[in-house]
Amino acid sequence: MKVLFDFLKELRENNNREWFNENKQGYEASKEQILFFTELMIQEIHKFDADVPLIDPKDCLFRIFRDVRFSHDKSPYKTHFGSFIAKGGRKSDRAGYYIHLEPGNSFLGGGVWHPEAAPLKAIRTEILDHPEALKAVLDDEKFKKYYPSIEGEKLKTAPKGFPKDFEQVDLLRYKSYAFGFQVEDQTVLGDDFVSLAVDAFRELSKANRFLNDALDKWC
Fold first, then answer.
1. Phi and psi of 83, rounded to 5°?
2. Closest by CA position to 97, among listed 87, 9, 24
3. For residues 122 and 124, what is the distance between their CA atoms, to the nearest angstrom?
4. Phi, psi (5° rounding) for residue 143?
5. 184-196 burial code (b ≥16 CB/10 A, e <16)
6. Which residues pair with 97 in a beta bridge?
7. DSSP codes of every residue in 33-96
8. Fewer CB atoms near the end CB (10 Å): N or C, the chain?
9. What is the value of pTM for the model shown?
10. End-to-end CA distance of the chain
11. What is the rounded distance in angstroms from the CA atom of residue 154 to the CA atom of residue 213?
12. Nearest to 101 by CA among 191, 170, 31, 179
């Protein structure tokens, strides 16, 4: 990943089209690295999560070009590479696995981030019906080693249409059911990054299985 990190560090200091066009070779080499890593993760995840097919890694990789139409920051390029591995690739509304590579801010994770109203209601309904199943995942020591908590914003009270006196009401208040953990640069650049990612994603599959079962049942 050194080529990728070196390119992103330079891009951070030279985030303009002229520099980018002059360094297209570095971009293409970096893109090949993240695509190779994404393909490797797809193959490994497929072994323990049948919901993830052997898809083209290009369908999982997010574009490096920023949408600046509604942003005060007019920098044309992202300073990271990201891939979302799930059935349907990066545009999927299913629970999946996310890779974020950025010098000083790399992380691995996944789940469902800011789902639309219908899938969010489906997940909450499944939690209401089977809270013990999700709690078993969240309380699992191997899972907690990577993902100590659900990430993202929460409602202040129970969502509309759900009982406020539900014993596990806190689990219903999340707007996302997402998980993640930071990875230091030296780890990303080290020899054990692949095995770490596979192990972390294997643990994440426990939560993703619950989430995707909910989507299959209620959507």
1. -130, 140
2. 87
3. 5
4. -65, -45
5. eeeebeeeebeee
6. 85, 110
7. HHHHHHHHHHHHHHHH-TTS----GGGTBPPSB---TT-S---SB-SSEEEEESTTGGG--S-E
8. C
9. 0.94
10. 39
11. 22
12. 31
> What is the C-alpha to C-alpha distance for residues 77 and 66, in angstroms, rounded to an integer?
5
For CA atoms 80, 46, 43, 45, the dihedral sign is: positive
What domains are there in the chain, each with its CATH number? 2-218 (3.30.930)
**pLDDT exceeds 80 at position 70:** no
How far is CA 30 from each of CA 59, 61, 77, 103, rounded to the nearest angstrom? 17, 12, 14, 13
The number of beta carbons lying within 10 Å of the beta carbon of residue 71 is: 9
Tens digit of pLDDT for each residue in 4-24?
999 999 999 999 999 999 999
Residue 71: partners with Cβ closer than 8 Å, 6 or more residues away: none
